[in-house]
Amino acid sequence: QTVVTQEPALSVSPGGTVTLTCGLNSGSVSTGYYPSWYQQTPGQAPRTLIYNTNTRSSGVPDRFSGSLLGNKAALSITGAQADDESDYYCVLYMGGGVWVFGGGTKLTVL
Amino acid sequence: QVQLVQSGAEVKKPGASVKVSCKASGYTFSDYFMHWVRQAPGQGLEWMGWINPNSGGTNYAQKFQGWVTMTRDTSISTAYMELSRLRSDDTAIYYCARSYGGNSRDAFHMWGQGTMVTVSS
Predict the structure, then answer these.
(1) DSSP strand pairing (B34-39 vs B45-51)
(2) What is the pLDDT of residues B23-59, one digit of tens each?
(3) b/e per residue, A8-37, with b = 16+ CB within 10 A?
(4) What residues form DSSP beta bridges with A47?
(5) Quick check: A93 and B110 CB within 8 A?
(6) pLDDT the model gives residue A1
């Protein structure tokens, strides 16, 4: 069973930089997994931040960037702001039309 | 602009079925895959499957095979997700999400507002 892994929780200081990662319980994440990232605040639908590893969705500030870091996909947030405090989810394409979400990272800005 | 508007909240008894709709506007409905994702209270996102509105072809997560049916009506640009034999742990918000391209490997881009489905006796 393929499991997509994310840090359960991270924190960042206002103005600081934080990197969230998205990995696999077995193997490395590559561009062929088409990693994507979503932000969700309580009571709201998810918002698309990044797709295809590093393509920002329209309207997403360039403080958010996607990349591959070692054997994982990564979402970096620079100049963190209070309203970046959210849950962040990655999703990976497993082939055969199948997608699997990670468990999500709860980001605290303090 | 692109919009996905979902049907309203539902309350169902265990063993019943629920059908959630997702009406698309602002783009050519048949050009993009429509995915369904659910989120149980306090839990993460779970991918359920997709439908290709052009062909009607579907692909369901293994967990939901035999249990979920995704359909579409291209004449009214609407996708549907029907879940049968409901159990209490199917209580969740169900989202439709349009892909950013016309391929099954194109991730989710635009999201509906979500539909709360409560399963309770």
Answers:
(1) antiparallel
(2) 999 999 999 999 999 999 999 999 999 999 999 999 9
(3) eebebeeeeebbbbbbbeeeebeeebbbbb
(4) A39
(5) no
(6) 82
Distance (Å, rounded) from C-alpha A99 to C-alpha A91? 7
Query: Rounded distance, CA A81 to CA A13, Å?
Result: 8
Most B-contacting residue of A48, A60, A91, A99 (CB-CB within 10 A), to test interface? A99
Q: Which phi and psi (to 5°) does residue B40 adopt?
A: -70, 155
CA nearest to A36 within chain B: B107
Summarised one tens digit per residue, pLDDT across range A51-106 is 999 999 999 999 999 999 999 999 999 999 999 999 999 999 999 999 999 999 99
Q: In this structure, what DSSP letter does residue B85 have?
A: S
